[in-house]
Structure formats: C-alpha cells, structure tokens
C-alpha cells in the first residue's frame, strides 16, 4: 500500500469516527438546552481539553510553527506567552464565576442570554447586539476553517480545492448538526489528543532526521537573533531586527481575546461541577504551554532540516506548510511512518474541525435562540426549536462555504481579525459583568459598540499610519471598550437592588 493511500485511509477513518460520535450523541439531546450547552454535564477533563481544542484551530500546527520557522523565537514566543497567560487567567478569573452566574441568571444557555439576563435588559438590546456580533465574526471565522481543510486536502492529494473544502464542511456539519454541543465537546476532546500525538510525532521524527537536538540548536545559533526574545530574525537581510517593547505588548495582547471568546466561554458554562473547575484549569494550562512550546520547536527543527537540504526551504506564507513537509518526508520512509503521518494530517484537521464545530453552534444559537426567540419572541415547541436550531446551523455553514470559496483567501488574517473582534466587544463586558457591581446595561452596550467600532477603525484606518500605530487592533480596541463601560456606567443610573443582590449572592456562592 502506498504512503498516500495509507494517509488517505487514516484521515477518512478519523472523519468517519467524528460522524459516528455525532450520531451517538444525537440521542442525548432532549431540548435546545442540551443541544447548545449539553445540559451542563461536562466533566473536568472534557471541559478543559474541549475548550483548548476549540481555541487553537489550525494555527497551532501550521501558523505558530511557520512563524518560528521564519523569524525565530521572538514573535512566536511572545504570542505563545500571551496566549498561555490569557488561558490561565480566563480559567482562574472567569470560569467558575461564569458557571455559577449564568445558571443563576435564568439558566442562560448562550453568551447573549447571559448579558441580557445579568443586566435585566428586558428589551433584549444586549441580546441583539451580541448575536449580531457573533454572526459578523463567526461566519467568516468558520469559513476560514473550511478553507484550511480544503487547502490541506488539495495540497496533499492534488484534489480540486472546492471539492475538498465542501467535503470537509459536510463532515463537520454532520456530526455537529446531529450531536450538538455534547458531540462537539467530546470530539474536541478526542481531537486534542490527536493534536498532541501529531506534535509529539513530528518533533521526535524531526530531531532524528536533523541528526539530533544539538544540530537543531547549532543551526539556530548560526541565525542572527533566532533564539532571542528581544530580537527577530530578518529573512531578507539575515540580520537581527529589534523587537520593541510596544510590539511585545501588542503581541501579548492576544491573551486578552480569551475573555471574549464565546466558543470557549460556553465550556465554562457547561461544566458539571463548579468545584472541579480548578482541575480543568490545571489540565488546560499545562496542555497549552506544552503544546505551544512543541509547536514553536517544530519551527526550529524545520529550519534545521531545510538548512541540511532534507526538505525544501520555505518562504513567506509557505512556511505554514512546514509540518506538512516534515510529515510527507516521514510518510516516504515506510508504511508504519506513513500511518503516523496520516495521524499528523488528521491532527491538522482536528485543529480546524474542533474550532469550526464550536463556532457553528455559537453562531446557530445566536440566530435561533437569541434573535428569533429572544428578540422577536417567536414561540416554538421543543421539537420545533431543535429543527430550527439544526436548520440555522446548516444555513450558517453554507454561508461559511461561500466565504471560503476563494482558495486564495487568507486564513490567518480572518482568524486574527475575528479574534480581535470578539476580544474587544465581549471581553471588557464579560469582565465587568462578573467583577464590577456598579456596571449597568448602558455601559455594556456602549462597551460592545465602541470596542467593535474601534477594531474596524484601527485595523483599516489608524494602523495604516505606521510606526507606533501599527500594532494589533485588539489592544487599543479592548482599552476603548473598557473605558466606555466604566464612563457610561458611572454617568447613568446605578443598577437596581435586585441586580446587585444577585451579584453579591453569586460572589458568595463562588467562594464556597
């Protein structure tokens, strides 16, 4: 059996397993609460690993190694540090309190529901704004995941991009539509294990192929600024450029995005036992640090392999294919290694699929639960709600496919912008909703709108001024959103005693 056939069989088997899991969990969805939040039944291990798998996407196995391959440790390292800190703080500060608060606030099953219930927004203005934000950023975000799958298959097997992309989308739609949140969470848990296996396999084979870890380190030491966190390797001049403090702060700001990611926050709300969230935090934090560290080191290994002529040198965005190149080289050795390479490619798919399924559910819930039922007050039976939930999910997925139709679209740019959008619109509101009793619905509305507007304004106008303004839009937009919440809350009416009493009751329960 040829190596390509082994890889294909491995990937097909993996994807069929995801659909089977979806079909299995479809029987456990009794109502939309189960479909969108799994009945709050996630154990600590599944909570932790599904949250991190839905977070990382193909960026972990492609984007991060690619950046490290080209420029060394500075940009990749500071980004990883920011994300690691953000992961830990999100679990430490937000997870337990959101789990308690969302249940106490009329058993909220979506983030827009929680915001409106938290602030007693009877007109559902917060629900509408939140749902629209989720649709605006998640539909193209999901499309970028479909595009990544299409590019992987077309690169590996020479298939037509559009056929490969649509086929991948259909698999993701099937298991998510069948099994809902529980299926997405359990498959995410499996996918996190596949990602881990992929990372470990590549780093072990890569070090062996490079002639040992000493050769990898020697190669890096011969490249100016490659191992430095204060300097960045310039592939054009082969010199080391300074990595400024402002740039470091901007890169670290990726971690702020965690406080506003609906598909991650939903895992906190779905936890079965609030007292076991500490266990989930430890598992998630350790996995994130180790996986990102290995991903960066794969970039270093890939550079050494290129320098030795083992694999072809990669430039620009092609550097994101470094893990694919190493895996293809691995598959040429023997059938066993071809099987391992197949698992590596399944790991790349796992990164993408674990994010796409969570995004589909979040976007679907925004339309069916928040807009149709919450804002327009459309009455539905549980059976009809389930049908509409699945129908909306399919429609949103189709829109994602349309957005992903162009094979030249940039996956990284879409992901980066969507991450900033959620971080700046939901992040400040989530933190103040959980930790500031004086915040009110007017401040929350102002924070969402100002943060969202600033993301677009900074990205497409201000950053083009260059210099100190050429930083990641999440940092300034997050700050603007937070200031708007504080200022508007202070100049408008204080929350009613019903809201503040509930805030105090939640705080007391969280401490118990």
Tell me the number of strands.
2
CATH-derived topology: Sodium/glucose cotransporter
Order of helices and strands: HHHHHHHHHEEHHHHHHHHHH
Q: How many helices does DSSP assign?
A: 19
Low-confidence stretches: none
Largest sheet: 2 strands, antiparallel
CATH superfamily: Sodium/glucose cotransporter
Mean of residue pLDDT values = 85
The N- and C-terminal alpha carbons lie at a distance of 59 Å
CATH architecture heading: Up-down Bundle
Strand neighbour order, sheet with most strands: 1-2
In which range does the helix fraction lie? over 70%
Shape from CA axes?
globular
Question: What does this 3D model show about the protein?
Answer:
The chain is mostly helical and 512 residues long. The chain has a single domain (3-405), classed as Sodium/glucose cotransporter. It has helices at 3-26, 32-37, 44-56, 63-71, 73-104, 111-118, 125-157, 161-209, 213-221, 245-252, 262-269, 277-307, 322-331, 335-375, 382-403, 411-435, 441-460, 474-491, 497-511, and strands at 231-233, 240-242. It has a two-stranded antiparallel ribbon with strand order 1-2. A hairpin with a 6-residue loop joins strand 1 (231-233) and strand 2. Helix 1 (3-26) crosses helix 8, helix 5 runs antiparallel to helix 12 and helix 6 runs antiparallel to helix 7. It is globular.
């Amino acid at each position: 059996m040829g190596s390509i056939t082994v890889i294909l069989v491995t990937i097909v088997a993996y994807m069929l397993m995801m659909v089977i899991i979806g079909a299995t969990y479809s029987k456990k969805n009794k109502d939309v609460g189960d479909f969108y939040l799994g009945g709050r039944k996630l154990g600590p291990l599944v909570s932790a690993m599904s949250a991190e798998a839905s977070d990382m996407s193909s960026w972990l196995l492609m984007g991060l190694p690619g950046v490290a391959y080209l420029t060394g440790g500075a940009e990749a390292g500071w980004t990883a540090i920011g994300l690691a800190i953000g992961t830990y703080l999100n679990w430490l500060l937000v997870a337990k309190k959101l789990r308690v608060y969302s249940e106490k606030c009329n058993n909220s099953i979506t983030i827009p529901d929680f915001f409106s219930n938290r602030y007693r927004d009877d007109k559902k203005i917060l629900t509408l704004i939140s749902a629209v934000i989720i649709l605006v950023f998640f539909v193209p975000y999901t499309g970028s995941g479909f595009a990544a799958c299409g590019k992987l298959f077309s690169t590996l097997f020479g298939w037509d991009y559009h056929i490969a992309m649509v086929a991948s989308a259909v698999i993701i739609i099937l298991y998510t539509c069948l099994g809902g949140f529980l299926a997405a969470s359990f498959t995410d848990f499996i996918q996190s294990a596949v990602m881990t296996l992929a990372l470990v396999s590549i780093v072990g084979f890569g070090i062996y192929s490079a002639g040992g870890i000493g050769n990898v380190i020697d190669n890096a030491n011969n490249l100016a600024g490659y191992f430095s966190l204060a300097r960045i390797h310039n592939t054009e001049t082969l010199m080391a450029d300074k990595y400024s403090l402002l740039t470091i702060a901007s890169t670290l700001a990726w971690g702020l995005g965690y406080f506003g990611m609906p598909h991650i926050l939903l895992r906190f709300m779905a936890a079965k036992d609030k007292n076991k969230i500490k266990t989930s935090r430890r598992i998630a934090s350790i996995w994130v640090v180790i996986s990102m560290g290995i991903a960066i080191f794969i970039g270093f290994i890939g550079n050494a392999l290129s320098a030795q002529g083992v694999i072809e040198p990669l430039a620009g965005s092609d550097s994101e294919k470094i893990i694919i190149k190493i895996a293809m080289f691995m598959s040429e050795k023997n059938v066993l290694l071809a099987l391992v390479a197949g698992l590596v490619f399944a790991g790349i798919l796992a990164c993408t699929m674990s994010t796409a399924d969570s995004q589909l559910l979040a976007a679907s819930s925004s339309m069916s639960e928040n807009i149709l039922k919450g804002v327009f007050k459309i009455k539905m039976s549980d059976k009809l709600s389930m049908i509409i939930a699945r129908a909306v999910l399919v429609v949103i997925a189709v829109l994602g496919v349309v957005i992903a139709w162009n094979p030249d679209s940039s996956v990284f740019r879409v992901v980066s912008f969507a991450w900033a959008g959620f971080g700046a619109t939901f992040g400040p509101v989530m933190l103040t909703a959980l930790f500031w009793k004086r915040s009110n619905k007017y401040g929350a509305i102002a924070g969402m709108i100002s943060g969202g507007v600033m993301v677009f304004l900074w990205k497409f106008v201000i950053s083009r001024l260059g210099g100190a303004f050429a930083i990641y839009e999440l940092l300034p937009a997050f700050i603007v959103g937070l200031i708007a919440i504080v200022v508007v809350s202070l100049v408008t009416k204080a929350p009613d005693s019903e809201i503040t009493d509930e805030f105090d009751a939640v705080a007391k329960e969280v401490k118990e």
